[in-house]
Write a structure and sequence with these properties.
disordered N terminus
Length: about 280
Protein backbone atom coordinates (compact mmCIF):
# COMPACT_ATOMS: atom_id res chain seq x y z
CA UNK A 1 0.00 0.00 0.00
CA UNK A 2 2.68 2.51 0.99
CA UNK A 3 4.57 2.18 -2.31
CA UNK A 4 1.40 2.80 -4.32
CA UNK A 5 0.67 5.98 -2.44
CA UNK A 6 4.11 7.51 -2.51
CA UNK A 7 4.95 10.49 -4.66
CA UNK A 8 7.07 9.37 -7.63
CA UNK A 9 10.06 11.31 -6.27
CA UNK A 10 9.31 11.43 -2.55
CA UNK A 11 8.87 8.61 -0.04
CA UNK A 12 6.75 10.59 2.44
CA UNK A 13 8.41 8.87 5.38
CA UNK A 14 10.43 10.47 8.17
CA UNK A 15 14.03 9.22 8.13
CA UNK A 16 15.30 6.91 10.85
CA UNK A 17 14.35 3.57 12.36
CA UNK A 18 11.54 3.47 14.97
CA UNK A 19 14.02 2.71 17.79
CA UNK A 20 16.09 5.74 16.76
CA UNK A 21 12.99 7.94 16.81
CA UNK A 22 11.96 6.63 20.24
CA UNK A 23 15.48 7.34 21.50
CA UNK A 24 15.27 10.86 20.12
CA UNK A 25 12.03 11.49 22.01
CA UNK A 26 13.59 10.16 25.23
CA UNK A 27 16.66 12.37 24.71
CA UNK A 28 14.51 15.46 24.21
CA UNK A 29 13.06 14.99 27.69
CA UNK A 30 16.45 15.74 29.26
CA UNK A 31 18.44 17.91 26.80
CA UNK A 32 17.84 21.47 25.53
CA UNK A 33 16.95 22.06 21.87
CA UNK A 34 20.20 23.80 21.02
CA UNK A 35 22.20 20.59 21.49
CA UNK A 36 20.52 18.50 18.73
CA UNK A 37 20.36 21.65 16.59
CA UNK A 38 24.14 21.86 16.84
CA UNK A 39 24.56 18.23 15.86
CA UNK A 40 22.20 18.81 12.94
CA UNK A 41 24.39 21.66 11.68
CA UNK A 42 27.30 19.20 11.40
CA UNK A 43 25.26 16.43 9.80
CA UNK A 44 23.63 18.53 7.08
CA UNK A 45 26.67 18.64 4.71
CA UNK A 46 26.77 14.83 4.60
CA UNK A 47 23.03 14.68 3.93
CA UNK A 48 23.48 17.13 1.05
CA UNK A 49 26.21 14.96 -0.43
CA UNK A 50 24.28 11.70 -0.30
CA UNK A 51 20.84 13.12 -1.11
CA UNK A 52 21.77 14.52 -4.49
CA UNK A 53 18.24 14.57 -5.89
CA UNK A 54 17.01 16.80 -3.07
CA UNK A 55 20.13 18.97 -3.24
CA UNK A 56 19.80 19.48 -7.01
CA UNK A 57 16.09 20.28 -6.79
CA UNK A 58 16.64 22.93 -4.13
CA UNK A 59 19.69 24.39 -5.90
CA UNK A 60 17.64 24.81 -9.09
CA UNK A 61 14.83 26.36 -7.06
CA UNK A 62 17.12 29.03 -5.61
CA UNK A 63 18.89 29.67 -8.92
CA UNK A 64 15.89 29.63 -11.27
CA UNK A 65 12.94 30.67 -9.10
CA UNK A 66 14.56 32.94 -6.52
CA UNK A 67 17.21 34.22 -8.99
CA UNK A 68 20.10 33.86 -6.52
CA UNK A 69 23.72 33.61 -7.60
CA UNK A 70 25.67 30.34 -7.42
CA UNK A 71 27.27 30.79 -4.01
CA UNK A 72 24.16 32.26 -2.44
CA UNK A 73 22.12 29.36 -3.84
CA UNK A 74 24.60 26.87 -2.36
CA UNK A 75 24.38 28.44 1.11
CA UNK A 76 20.61 28.67 0.85
CA UNK A 77 20.47 24.93 0.11
CA UNK A 78 22.46 24.35 3.29
CA UNK A 79 20.15 26.69 5.24
CA UNK A 80 17.12 24.89 3.79
CA UNK A 81 18.39 21.46 4.84
CA UNK A 82 19.33 22.76 8.28
CA UNK A 83 15.93 24.37 8.73
CA UNK A 84 14.22 21.15 7.65
CA UNK A 85 16.24 19.28 10.26
CA UNK A 86 15.11 21.78 12.91
CA UNK A 87 11.49 21.31 11.83
CA UNK A 88 11.75 17.53 12.25
CA UNK A 89 13.50 17.90 15.62
CA UNK A 90 10.79 20.31 16.79
CA UNK A 91 8.15 17.69 16.01
CA UNK A 92 9.92 15.16 18.17
CA UNK A 93 10.43 17.85 20.78
CA UNK A 94 6.66 18.24 21.00
CA UNK A 95 6.30 14.46 21.39
CA UNK A 96 8.65 14.77 24.36
CA UNK A 97 6.62 17.56 25.94
CA UNK A 98 8.52 20.68 24.87
CA UNK A 99 6.46 23.85 24.40
CA UNK A 100 6.63 26.35 21.56
CA UNK A 101 5.29 29.90 21.19
CA UNK A 102 2.78 30.60 18.41
CA UNK A 103 1.86 33.98 16.96
CA UNK A 104 -1.15 33.80 14.64
CA UNK A 105 -2.19 36.23 11.90
CA UNK A 106 -5.76 35.72 10.72
CA UNK A 107 -7.05 33.65 13.64
CA UNK A 108 -10.35 35.54 13.38
CA UNK A 109 -11.02 33.84 10.01
CA UNK A 110 -10.96 30.40 11.60
CA UNK A 111 -12.88 31.59 14.66
CA UNK A 112 -15.62 32.96 12.40
CA UNK A 113 -15.98 29.73 10.41
CA UNK A 114 -16.18 27.72 13.62
CA UNK A 115 -19.35 29.60 14.53
CA UNK A 116 -21.11 28.38 11.36
CA UNK A 117 -22.94 25.05 11.21
CA UNK A 118 -21.24 23.88 8.00
CA UNK A 119 -17.76 22.44 7.90
CA UNK A 120 -14.80 23.83 5.99
CA UNK A 121 -11.55 22.73 4.36
CA UNK A 122 -8.11 23.61 5.76
CA UNK A 123 -5.38 23.58 3.10
CA UNK A 124 -1.90 22.55 4.22
CA UNK A 125 1.39 22.58 2.32
CA UNK A 126 4.98 21.39 2.64
CA UNK A 127 6.38 24.68 3.88
CA UNK A 128 7.25 25.46 7.48
CA UNK A 129 5.87 23.14 10.14
CA UNK A 130 2.11 22.77 9.66
CA UNK A 131 1.98 19.61 11.78
CA UNK A 132 3.29 21.25 14.94
CA UNK A 133 0.37 23.70 14.98
CA UNK A 134 -2.04 20.81 15.39
CA UNK A 135 -0.36 19.92 18.66
CA UNK A 136 -0.65 23.43 20.13
CA UNK A 137 -3.51 25.31 18.44
CA UNK A 138 -6.85 23.78 19.40
CA UNK A 139 -10.15 24.16 17.48
CA UNK A 140 -12.62 25.89 19.74
CA UNK A 141 -15.72 23.86 18.86
CA UNK A 142 -15.47 21.80 15.68
CA UNK A 143 -13.70 18.47 15.35
CA UNK A 144 -10.56 18.62 13.19
CA UNK A 145 -9.79 15.77 10.75
CA UNK A 146 -6.32 15.67 9.15
CA UNK A 147 -5.68 13.65 5.99
CA UNK A 148 -2.24 12.05 6.45
CA UNK A 149 0.12 9.77 4.54
CA UNK A 150 -0.37 6.22 5.85
CA UNK A 151 3.19 4.99 5.31
CA UNK A 152 4.88 6.85 8.18
CA UNK A 153 6.76 4.93 10.87
CA UNK A 154 4.76 3.49 13.77
CA UNK A 155 6.55 5.82 16.21
CA UNK A 156 5.48 8.94 14.31
CA UNK A 157 1.91 7.74 13.78
CA UNK A 158 1.47 6.73 17.43
CA UNK A 159 2.75 10.06 18.72
CA UNK A 160 0.68 11.99 16.21
CA UNK A 161 -2.43 10.17 17.36
CA UNK A 162 -1.65 10.77 21.02
CA UNK A 163 -1.05 14.50 20.53
CA UNK A 164 -3.98 15.12 18.20
CA UNK A 165 -6.51 13.21 20.30
CA UNK A 166 -5.84 15.63 23.17
CA UNK A 167 -7.00 18.54 20.96
CA UNK A 168 -10.24 17.10 19.51
CA UNK A 169 -8.39 16.11 16.35
CA UNK A 170 -8.14 12.84 14.43
CA UNK A 171 -6.15 11.43 11.51
CA UNK A 172 -7.60 10.06 8.28
CA UNK A 173 -4.89 7.94 6.59
CA UNK A 174 -4.84 7.86 2.78
CA UNK A 175 -5.66 4.28 1.71
CA UNK A 176 -5.61 2.37 -1.56
CA UNK A 177 -9.28 1.38 -1.22
CA UNK A 178 -10.14 5.12 -1.21
CA UNK A 179 -12.11 4.73 2.04
CA UNK A 180 -10.57 7.99 3.21
CA UNK A 181 -12.81 9.80 0.70
CA UNK A 182 -15.92 8.61 2.51
CA UNK A 183 -14.50 9.74 5.84
CA UNK A 184 -13.67 13.18 4.43
CA UNK A 185 -17.16 13.57 2.98
CA UNK A 186 -18.78 12.43 6.22
CA UNK A 187 -16.68 14.88 8.26
CA UNK A 188 -17.77 17.81 6.07
CA UNK A 189 -21.40 16.66 6.21
CA UNK A 190 -21.13 16.61 10.01
CA UNK A 191 -20.00 20.24 10.06
CA UNK A 192 -16.38 19.39 10.94
CA UNK A 193 -13.01 20.70 9.73
CA UNK A 194 -11.08 18.72 7.13
CA UNK A 195 -7.35 19.34 6.64
CA UNK A 196 -5.80 18.27 3.31
CA UNK A 197 -2.42 18.87 1.64
CA UNK A 198 -2.82 21.09 -1.43
CA UNK A 199 0.68 21.28 -2.90
CA UNK A 200 1.85 17.70 -3.47
CA UNK A 201 0.26 15.03 -5.65
CA UNK A 202 0.19 11.46 -4.33
CA UNK A 203 -2.47 8.78 -4.48
CA UNK A 204 -4.94 10.32 -6.97
CA UNK A 205 -3.20 11.92 -9.95
CA UNK A 206 -6.03 14.40 -10.62
CA UNK A 207 -4.51 17.85 -10.74
CA UNK A 208 -5.19 21.45 -11.63
CA UNK A 209 -2.60 23.69 -13.29
CA UNK A 210 -1.83 27.01 -11.64
CA UNK A 211 0.62 29.81 -12.33
CA UNK A 212 3.37 29.49 -9.73
CA UNK A 213 6.67 31.39 -9.74
CA UNK A 214 6.10 32.41 -13.36
CA UNK A 215 5.35 28.97 -14.75
CA UNK A 216 2.53 26.45 -14.79
CA UNK A 217 2.68 23.86 -12.01
CA UNK A 218 0.35 21.01 -11.10
CA UNK A 219 -1.51 21.11 -7.78
CA UNK A 220 -3.65 18.24 -6.42
CA UNK A 221 -7.33 18.70 -7.17
CA UNK A 222 -8.70 16.81 -4.15
CA UNK A 223 -9.13 19.57 -1.57
CA UNK A 224 -10.47 22.10 -4.08
CA UNK A 225 -12.90 19.56 -5.58
CA UNK A 226 -14.20 18.60 -2.13
CA UNK A 227 -14.78 22.22 -1.10
CA UNK A 228 -16.53 22.94 -4.42
CA UNK A 229 -18.69 19.82 -4.27
CA UNK A 230 -19.78 20.52 -0.70
CA UNK A 231 -19.96 24.30 -1.24
CA UNK A 232 -17.90 25.02 1.88
CA UNK A 233 -15.19 27.66 2.50
CA UNK A 234 -11.45 27.04 2.37
CA UNK A 235 -8.62 28.34 4.52
CA UNK A 236 -4.88 27.98 4.00
CA UNK A 237 -2.66 27.78 7.07
CA UNK A 238 1.11 28.31 6.84
CA UNK A 239 3.10 27.75 10.06
CA UNK A 240 6.61 29.16 9.72
CA UNK A 241 9.56 28.89 12.10
CA UNK A 242 10.64 32.36 13.16
CA UNK A 243 13.22 31.68 15.87
CA UNK A 244 14.46 29.16 18.43
CA UNK A 245 11.04 28.25 19.90
CA UNK A 246 8.68 30.64 18.10
CA UNK A 247 6.40 29.94 15.13
CA UNK A 248 4.31 32.40 13.12
CA UNK A 249 1.04 31.06 11.70
CA UNK A 250 -0.66 32.73 8.73
CA UNK A 251 -4.36 31.95 8.19
CA UNK A 252 -5.67 33.00 4.78
CA UNK A 253 -9.12 32.75 3.16
CA UNK A 254 -8.86 30.92 -0.18
CA UNK A 255 -11.24 31.21 -3.16
CA UNK A 256 -9.76 28.65 -5.59
CA UNK A 257 -6.60 26.75 -6.57
CA UNK A 258 -4.91 29.76 -8.18
CA UNK A 259 -5.60 31.84 -5.09
CA UNK A 260 -3.92 29.14 -3.00
CA UNK A 261 -0.92 29.06 -5.37
CA UNK A 262 -0.60 32.86 -5.13
CA UNK A 263 -0.64 32.77 -1.31
CA UNK A 264 1.82 29.89 -1.24
CA UNK A 265 4.19 31.77 -3.55
CA UNK A 266 4.02 34.82 -1.29
CA UNK A 267 4.91 32.73 1.78
CA UNK A 268 7.74 30.89 0.00
CA UNK A 269 9.25 34.18 -1.17
CA UNK A 270 9.12 35.41 2.43
CA UNK A 271 10.58 32.17 3.84
CA UNK A 272 12.50 30.60 0.92
CA UNK A 273 14.53 28.23 3.10
CA UNK A 274 11.32 26.69 4.46
CA UNK A 275 10.15 25.26 1.10
CA UNK A 276 10.41 21.49 1.54
CA UNK A 277 9.44 19.92 -1.78
CA UNK A 278 12.63 18.06 -2.68
CA UNK A 279 11.87 17.36 -6.33
CA UNK A 280 11.34 19.46 -9.47
CA UNK A 281 7.93 20.85 -8.59
CA UNK A 282 7.34 22.24 -12.08
CA UNK A 283 8.07 18.97 -13.91
CA UNK A 284 6.28 16.47 -11.69
Amino acid sequence: MADALQHNEWSGKTDGQPWMQRSLIAMFRVVPLWLPYGVMALVVPFYMIFNRRGYNAMYRFFRERMNYGRWKSFWKVYANHFRFGQIILDRFGVYAGKKYRFITEGQELMDELETHPEGFVNLSSHVGNYEIAGYSLKPKSKRFNALVYAGETATVMENRQKMLSQNNMSMIPVKEDMSHLFLLNNAIDNGEIVSMPADRIFGSQKAVECQFFGEKARFPMGAFALASKKNVPMLAVFVMKESYKTYYAFVRGIKNAQDFADNLEEIVKRYPTQWFNYFDFWKQ
